[in-house]
Hints:
This protein is α+β, with helices and mostly antiparallel strands. It is 45% helix and 23% strand.
Amino acid sequence: MHKSERLFQLVNILKGRRYAITAKQLAVKLAVSERTIYRDIQHLQSAGVPIDGEAGIGYLIAQCDLPPMMFTLAELQALLLGSRMVGAWTDPELAADAHAAIAKIEAVLPQQLKQRIDNLPYLVSGWSHTADHQAYNKLIRHGINQSTCLRLHYQDAKDAVSQRIIEPLGLVYWGGKWTLIAHCQLRQDYREFRLDRILSLEATNDVFTTSATHCLDHYVARVKACYKEQ
């Protein structure tokens, strides 16, 4: 790891902590010697980074605004891959936000990094994600963010058709299929709805509230408990 990258990593570690961390702990995280950490801390302090603390006690960055840190190549590859997945598997509105974020990052990248991330060895196919799926994804996402109910017209695996009012809680992507996790007002319980089986979906103005026993985390906990019992 180059010194510049190590300094960025060091600042990021310190910024992400509420309590002081010792030079020994930092040395383990960055795979360097404690002496190197002490030198790096002194270098950052002389450059104006407000690091408080001392040897044997620990270090912490004071509350202040610092310029954004540069990403490593691996971090950039992860971000770019994520943005491509968002672009291919969600909706155009969210995809545009992802591409805008990546464009801001790329605008400040050194040329050598730009050249390396252009050769990202991953392709993301969105061929099965139709315009209807994109529209449903957007409606559901807005319903989750705004805690508003949706009117659902649905055909299940047995071809039975139903209409119901649901409270959208989350979206799960199963590697080819999106599933909406919701609380169904008709059944008064959690239900899963595959987006490719939705016949129509409409937003409503009805607002719902979540609680510790009426939310996505509670649903996930119930599912995990069910699998453990099997």
